[in-house]
């Protein structure tokens, strides 16, 4: 039973760390200055009439 608790604690801790790092990476990608032009262009797609 001790092995299960150790494994569960390990998975919860490192799973949280993994998702926090993934979230920070996605936010950094979205806010990176060199991506601004690409995202500005993509935001205008629904407004085009062609």
How do the helices and strands line up, and which of them pair or pack?
Layout: H1 2-31, H2 36-43
Task: Compose a concise summary of this entry.
The protein is mainly alpha-helical. Helix content is 76%, strand content 0%.
**C-alpha end-to-end distance:** 64 Å
Order of helices and strands: HH
Could you tell me the mean pLDDT?
94
Which regions are unreliable across 5 or more consecutive residues at pLDDT < 50? none
Secondary structure category: mainly alpha
Q: Oligomeric form of this entry? A: single chain
Fraction of helical residues: over 70%
Query: Tally the helices: what do you get?
Result: 2
Largest sheet: none
Strand content: under 5%
Computed Rg: 20 Å
Question: What would you say this structure looks like, in words?
Answer:
This protein is mostly helical and 50 residues long. It has a domain at 18-50. It has helices spanning 2-31, 36-43. The radius of gyration is 20 Å and the shape is elongated. The mean pLDDT is 94.
Keywords:
single chain; 50 residues; mainly alpha
């Amino acid at each position: 039973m001790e092995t299960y608790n150790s494994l569960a604690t390990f998975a919860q801790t490192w799973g949280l760390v993994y998702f926090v790092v993934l979230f920070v990476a996605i936010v950094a990608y979205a806010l990176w200055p060199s991506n601004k032009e690409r995202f500005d262009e993509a935001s205008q797609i629904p407004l085009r009439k062609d």
